[in-house]
Specification:
The protein is α+β, with helices and mostly antiparallel strands and 240 residues long. Helix content is 30%, strand content 32%. Strand 11 and strand 12 form a beta hairpin. The chain binds adenosine-5'-triphosphate and magnesium ion.
Length: 240
Amino acid sequence: MSTPPAERLLYEGKAKQVYAADAPDQVVIHYKDDATAFNGVKKASIADKGVINCRISAFFMDKVAALGIPTAFIRQTAPRDQLCHRVEIIPVEVVVRNVVAGSLAKRLGQPEGQRLARPLVEHFYKSDALNDPQINEEGAVLMGYAHGWELVAMREYSLSVNDMLLAFWGDLGVDLVDFKLEFGRLGGRVVLADEITPDGSRLWERGTGRKLDKDVFRRDLGDLSETYRELYRRVFGESI
Ligand SMILES: Nc1ncnc2c1ncn2[C@@H]1O[C@H](COP(=O)(O)OP(=O)(O)OP(=O)(O)O)[C@@H](O)[C@H]1O
Ligand SMILES: [Mg+2]
């Protein structure tokens, strides 16, 4: 199945395009090579990022489904394309943290690298215009962004996904520092949507602390394309 024609484009984000699929309740998510940071201020094209992220996300979504967690993902249909259920995205992003880094370190004036005694779940209101501000669950409910029961499911699913990802990356000699998830509404249920990729995760090589994620691009630490190729080799045991 090839990428749908331009007239089917519903939405173009920073890293992906969303197309109407043949079935009205489905979409094709097309992964681009574009990388952005600081809410789109810094931009570049990273060779093969779309192919790498598409396959990694598909791989993890299958693992999530195997845990019994519903997802929007149906199947990968091309190197950069996934067929997914069309969902109503809940405008609350969930971040799970195992180690202090990124905006948490900045906000609290703490050094990066401190391991947390248990995973910390944070919420952010999904708004490019506002730069995705942090919000708590009470605020998300009172502002009408999500129902209480949805947030309960999102927290439980996110912690289960964290357990799975921690173990998976750990076996590959990689520490999962943190990651972001998006959820959607589908048939009265909450499902995991969007992506699980190194764009939305922090991955540090065990022992050396070398960064194997989009921080390489954000912080000018090296060649992100080469970093993602290395991750791909670790995950799939073959080169791209
Ligand atoms: N199954 C789905 N059904 C409907 N929308 C989806 C689905 N999966 C992902 N999306 C949405 O498609 C868009 C993907 O594009 P991309 O990740 O490039 O966006 P972005 O630039 O990160 O911006 P933003 O997420 O803030 O809209 C996101 O808005 C995401 O919430
Ligand atoms: Mg996105």
